[in-house]
Design goal:
Length: 320
């Protein structure tokens, strides 16, 4: 009997190996999908995190661009993938904007995703031609005295930059004239030429021109002064108490991701964000490295959907 038992042990052990291997995550290549053009900020952040996760988890992590419709093409694709931890997505601040702006999307912006961790947060800056305004208060005073006389350029109707300008008008009780362009670069070119009076955009768009003496950075949209530009006042401390808009990047996955895999990924992302090299690369993009729990990430997205829905309704922006 003992002879039979010992003879059966190798077979039993062999049969148990595939199950054990299947329970080990990760055991093959992971993808990070994003919804924007190769070479842009989203692509760059995806590659920074992919490199760090690959080193941490011991498996290749590749980046896949699926651009279109402000990131919704990628979100629609990821929402339909298997929730096994091998398809991730770089979500951006446009994710809650899309939920508020579109009448219908092929996914639910909350329920069809597992929110793993934020990666970075960044404010927008209000930029004007150098010497055009002495302060953001002067801008608001001019807009109040002559409604729709102050022209704000932005990266397209329904963009986060556009909605931030609309929110500023709502919070200060003034009417701006919002002028859409095909992207932030076109808006800043228009500002240089005097076609518009202001641009609200990321620091990567505004601050280089401010350093060159072409623009003035009049205010920042974050609730507190931005560490990288402590001399730039906030909208909250000047013209719009309580104003606090931060855009962000973060890592998500399809809904239903097992808790143990979500925890593994959350820990890996947060470890990556403590690495000095990773932090420096993210800071160079004008963002502050900032990890989170999955629960906090989801709650932030939910709050922003509510905020942008309110702005779109109040500004009577046509939904798509």
């Amino acid at each position: 009997m003992l002879k039979t038992l010992f003879a059966a042990l190798p077979l039993a052990m062999a049969l148990s190996l595939p199950a054990a291997a299947q329970s080990t995550y990760p055991d093959h290549t992971i993808r990070i999908v994003h919804g924007f053009a190769a070479g842009g900020n989203a692509d760059t952040v995806s590659r920074i995190i992919a490199d760090a996760l690959s080193q941490d988890l011991g498996q290749p992590v590749v980046v896949e661009a699926r651009p279109g419709a402000g990131g919704t093409v990628a979100s629609g694709y990821v929402a339909q993938q298997e929730a096994d931890g091998y398809t991730l997505q770089l979500l951006v601040g446009g994710h809650p904007v899309a939920a508020a702006l579109y009448n219908s999307l092929p996914f639910d912006s909350l329920e069809d995703f597992t929110f793993i961790s934020t990666v970075g947060q960044f404010p927008f800056f209000v930029g004007a031609q150098h010497g055009r305004f002495a302060s953001i208060q002067e801008v608001i005073d001019a807009a109040r005295a002559n409604p729709r006389s102050i022209r704000i350029g932005h990266a397209g109707v329904g963009s986060t930059q556009h909605l931030t300008g609309e929110l500023l008008g709502l919070e200060t009780g003034v009417q701006f004239l919002h002028v859409p362009y095909q992207g932030g670069a076109a808006a800043t070119t228009a500002l240089m030429g005097g076609e518009i009076d202001l641009v609200i955009d990321a620091g990567t768009v505004i601050l280089g021109q401010a350093d060159a003496g072409v623009f003035d950075a009049l205010a920042v949209t974050s609730g507190a002064r931005w560490d990288d530009r402590p001399d730039v006042p906030t909208l909250a401390e000047t013209v719009a108490p309580g104003f606090d808009v931060l855009s962000w990047t973060g890592i998500g996955a399809p809904a239903g991701l097992p808790d143990d895999i979500a925890e593994t990924l959350n820990a890996a992302v947060n470890r990556a964000l403590q690495d000095e090299g990773v932090r420096e690369r993210i800071l160079a993009l004008g963002a502050s490295p900032a990890g989170s729990t999955g629960e906090a990430f989801r709650a932030m997205v939910e709050r922003q959907i509510a905020t942008w829905t309110r702005v779109i309704d109040a500004a009577e922006i046509e939904r798509r």
